[in-house]
Known about the structure:
The complex is a heterodimer.
Chain A: H1 2-16, E1 29-35, E2 38-42, E3 45-48, E4 54-55, E5 60-63, E6 68-73, E7 78-81, E8 86-95, E9 100-115, H2 118-122, E10 127-130, E11 135-138, E12 142-147
Parallel strand pairs in A: 9-10
Antiparallel strand pairs in A: 1-4, 1-6, 2-3, 2-5, 5-8, 6-7, 7-9, 8-9, 9-12, 10-11
Chain B: H1 2-21, E1 24-29, E2 39-43, E3 46-50, E4 55-59, E5 70-71, H2 74-86, E6 93-98, H3 108-123, E7 129-134, H4 141-161, E8 169-175, E9 194-199
Parallel strand pairs in B: 7-8
Antiparallel strand pairs in B: 1-4, 2-3, 4-5, 6-9, 7-9
Amino acid sequence: MRLTIVNLFCLALILIGPGASAAADAFVGVVKTLEGVAVITRNGETIALGTGMEIQRADVVKTDRNGCVGLVFSDDTRISMGPNTELAVNDYLFEPVEKKLSFVLRLIRGTVSFLSGQIAKLSPESVQLVMPAATIGVRGTHVLIKVD
Amino acid sequence: MRVWVYLWCCVAAMSLMVACGHKNIIVLVPDPDGSVGQVSVSNDAGTVDMNRANQSTSVRDRTTAPAAPAELKPEQVQELFGRVLSNVPPPPIHFFLYFKSDSVQLLPASVKLLPEIVDTIQQRAPTRISVVGHSDTRGDKAYNLDLSTRRATAVKQQLVDRGVDDTVMDVSSHGEENPLVKTADNVANTKNRRVEVIVR
């Protein structure tokens, strides 16, 4: 399992490496609500979460046992995370002009409410919620997911 | 007595399954407007499609197919997901601003909207604002992209002049690729010729 995570991380680094500078200013998401304690793991560093903070591609957001977080993305997607939850923004691209649309979230554990936005409207096949046991394709909707 | 033993065994077996399995649960619920979308849940062993309110499936691992969808009662949805459902952030507010033809000058009705936009930004703080230019499909794609970028930049400047912090605003342009009203190519449409200010 650990090997897989390391592999995925390396793959992610390779994939985002060249494109990272071009997309550096593109706004991805914002932390709108926070209860309790939550952190973001970004480039190997752990940062305490606060409202108004930006979410970036490849961020991993983690809540503690009393933590709840509300996120809003640039395409209007709204996410609510419950306690003891770990959610990774594996990929996010909202550039309709270049037809670059992608939203891949990975729920490692915990509970999440996902209300899809414009990426799902413009390109439903570009939205994926990855769970340990299955992958969910979302065609413009409100879905609740839980990993025990 | 025998019934109780049987029941107890069932409960014990179920909790054991839950404890060992790292069960994944997926529930489709109505959108805020009451409509119900569609999800597909798949892994190496199969796919399950859901398109009705409160349909739910569970999956144990990637080599076991997702269970056949079952409808949950509203109170079961609340029990599993009440906390996240009560914390969904409010929807972003979209303001639409319109322009004189081939110009970065706002129409009078749109100028009147600016104070309301500024108030909303203050109420929603801390927030991030996107100012997005859009065009209709009439004329040259590249020209439309440039015009809608100039319009978005002009709107951002108007908001900065009214005291909005420019570090919380992003300017971009979707040209003719993200229309409000879908049309064929080369069609003039006043609703698509817009700048959207999105306050989250």
